[in-house]
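Lab notebook: predicted structure, single chain.

Context: the supervisor wants predicted structures on file for every construct in the current expression panel, including those that have not yet been purified. This is the next one on the list. No modifications to the sequence; it matches the entry in the shared construct table.
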Amino acid sequence: MTAEYRPGDNVPSIYDKIHAAIQPNGELPSSFSLRSHDPEGIAWADGAWDGVCIYHNRLETPDLAPIILVLRRGSSHVFAHAKMALPEVFPDADHSMLAYVDAAQNWILDHSEELDATNLYLFARHLLFYAREMEEVKLALSLLEIIWNEKDEEARQAVRELAASDEFTLFATFAVRNWENKNEEIFRMAQKAHGWGRIHAVASLEPTTAEIRRWLLREGVDNDVMPEYSALTVAEKIDLLNVVQAADRNGEDFVAAGRILAALIESDGGPVLGIGAYEQEEALVRAYIDKARLSMPNEEIYRVLRIIKLHYAEEEDEAFQTLAKEADAVLSSDSCLNYMRCKAEQGENLRLASQLGVDCAKEIKAAFRSDWRKHYAMLQFLDNQEDLMEMADFFLANVKNEDMLAPQNVLVGGTGNHAYEIMLEKLAGYSQQEARLLRLGLRTPVIRSRLMTLKRLRVWKENGKITEALRRAVDEWKKNETDQKMRFEYLDL
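Prediction complete. Output recorded below exactly as produced.
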């Protein structure tokens, strides 16, 4: 590798880290991350900051003077001095390359006669391989979009490897815009990235071949963030209505089309445009219901129909309400309910079966007993108090201290706290099991769980149900509570 300047120490660059981690299939391990996670702060996934800025309008163009200075120094081939000025361009997380990119590129194009393109390319190449800060790598990729050397295979491969990181996929799509085979490259990026990178690559990908259209249908909305971010994009690029109409009602394409339709509906009214922005909304949903009505029993299809039912039942338009009723008719059919009952008896799809009205209490209790940490959320579908008390007894006998460990006064806890909160919310009647749960809840470091506990204890007190054991537990809580506002608010207990 040839470069004009290599730092003298052994600290790896961003590219070094990615190059070392790339697997034979061209992907990064799922555990790979360039960001250190602060347990006390917000844990941003790779690429999430730029994604939030794009989809939630958090972009403001900063003062261009610092980046102009860097570009002029790069153009003059004084790379060390250019790098010394970079901290002024990116002083903190609020100053990202995404905010600069359009304005900086326009400035370069407007001043092309006074800038040395070869030196700027070499500077971009230097940052590409040797920068240790993420925004500096993005600057390099932004420069390569407008200044590119087709013969530089080494830089080409580096762009491909950087694209595998969700942090850089977006900027890699910028960098390849002037490549002869840009769409093939973006397709490769979309397949190799799985988080925000896939979302950005899908947005840039053109459905020019049958292979790309098939991949968009089968995997285009499958990302580690939210399928809703890509749903409308994919639906429009593959002509989802035509796909539904042409698909075998018992085939994989119809199931895949249903996943896209479900994401479209669930994104409506959310952070991105959803089904309401699809030009042929009613025709699409009707085509799906008509084909689903004739399909073999399939839980994936039933899941989509339930989403359709819930969404359109709230619509004022009579035609849309009819769609909800037609979806409900399929879900209420003997074919659907018998199939879901059979699945539930096998311990499968308990959530959907419960949502469709199948009595799954026996199976839910068995699942909770087999692995309560995995199946605790299913408790929300139990309504019988005896069943709930039985599960509370099991939980109290099996929960370990580490299940409810968390930093003191963290807002939301982990698995143990989630299970505790569901049981506390569902139990009623001042049972012995609830009293034991309340004593446990007073000791948790998690604010949300403690607040739920204290609110319920207030109800117990108002109804004269506080036992001596609970009184002692409350007195102990008053002595140990570190959140003074919470302690003051519940001193009357």
